[in-house]
Design brief:
One of its GO terms (cellular component) is plasma membrane. Pfam families: Oscp1. It comes from Odynerus spinipes. This is Protein OSCP1. It contains 15 helices and 2 strands. By secondary structure, it is mainly alpha-helical. The protein has a two-stranded antiparallel sheet with strand order 1-2. Helix 1 runs antiparallel to helix 2, helix 1 runs parallel beside helix 4 and helix 1 packs across helix 5.
Length: 325
């Protein structure tokens, strides 16, 4: 059994939760200020230093059912309500997308890269500089925690995560539409640009630490804070640019480019043909509270323990980072 699996489960499931919440907020045309508040608050709750100290502790993998209350408390840490049915659907989406990603990875390095794709997205979602600094610290925690492990140890951690996720078997519309899942809930592992070919190199890599291998000798993908991860796994599958080249994605975000409605319409048809435009209805609704006084959870009580400090207090993360090193 691996002693290093829990951060993989927690950060990837938390990252997927943020993707889903952001997309629902956008789809429901929630006010920009409230959207920013929700994303800042939920990210802060996910990356609370006390919680991360438990997540990054070397121990047997934490059961998904045991992680769920912490993730749910994070989802409800802002001005947002989710009823039990909606929370179940949110959890199904988080769980199955991460299960697909960990099934599809081509090697241990990609396990870390897909996790860093999620932390990259967290950094992009938070608007406060202190929050971005905290995400940068978490990024370094991930790199330090896993770079010192061997390829075999990381792969065992991935396999333990999949064992935990094995009982969860739900059809997910976005996966079905992209051809990544079958009606029986099994996955189609399509060929991606990134491929470590781990099984082919296993005999040479298994006993070597991740940090001791030049990525160019095996497979690229940067662990640097602003590096190119190289893999699509861990990116926002709900985005209209998912699967589109970085160059085209950059053009889609260019304001002058978007002003050309004719071009935008043509790109819309193109993305539909490529199977990258989202067309299905999301299965649940978010309800935002009208003001902070009505928040279900006090901002100093993000989780079930009252003694938690806010994540914007960076000292806790810095201390934790020192422990991991």
């Amino acid at each position: 059994m691996s002693m290093h699996a829990t951060p993989i489960l927690y950060l990837n499931m938390g990252g997927e939760m943020l993707y889903i919440l952001r997309q629902r907020l956008k789809a429901q045309k929630i006010d920009v200020d409230k959207t920013v508040q929700v994303l800042n608050d939920v990210t802060a709750a996910l990356l609370n230093a006390t919680v991360l100290s438990s997540v990054f502790k070397e121990s047997l993998v934490t059961a998904v059912a045991s992680l769920r209350p912490t993730l749910e408390c994070a989802a409800l840490s802002s001005i947002m309500r989710l009823d039990a049915g909606s929370m179940d659907k949110l959890f199904d989406l988080m769980t199955m997308i991460v299960k697909y990603q960990l099934t599809a990875v081509t090697g241990p390095r990609e396990v870390i890269l897909l996790t860093l794709n999620h932390t990259d997205a967290m950094r992009d979602m938070v608007s406060e500089p202190s929050g971005q600094e905290c995400v940068a610290l978490v990024h370094q925690m991930v790199v330090d925690f896993y770079s010192n492990l061997t390829y075999n140890e990381i792969w065992r951690a991935r396999n333990d995560c999949l064992k935990e996720l094995e009982p969860y078997s739900v059809r997910i519309s976005i996966l079905l539409r992209l051809g990544l899942q079958n009606e029986d809930t099994s996955f189609n592992l399509t060929t991606q640009k990134y491929n470590e070919k781990y099984e082919e190199h296993k005999h040479m890599l298994d006993n070597k630490k991740m940090k001791d291998i030049d990525p160019n000798e095996n497979c690229s993908g940067s662990f640097q804070l602003y590096g190119d991860r190289g893999t699509l796994l861990g990116k926002n599958i709900y985005s209209s640019t998912y699967g589109i080249s970085e160059k085209l994605a950059s053009s889609l975000h260019n304001s002058n480019f978007l002003k050309d409605c004719g071009t935008k319409a043509e790109l819309g048809m193109l993305t539909t043909q490529l199977g990258t435009e989202e067309t299905y209805d999301r299965p649940f609704t978010l309800n935002l509270l009208p003001n902070e006084e009505e928040t279900l959870y006090n901002k100093n009580e993000y989780f079930c323990e009252n003694e938690q400090e806010k994540v914007t207090h960076n000292m806790g993360l810095l201390d934790l980072l020192d422990e991991i090193k």
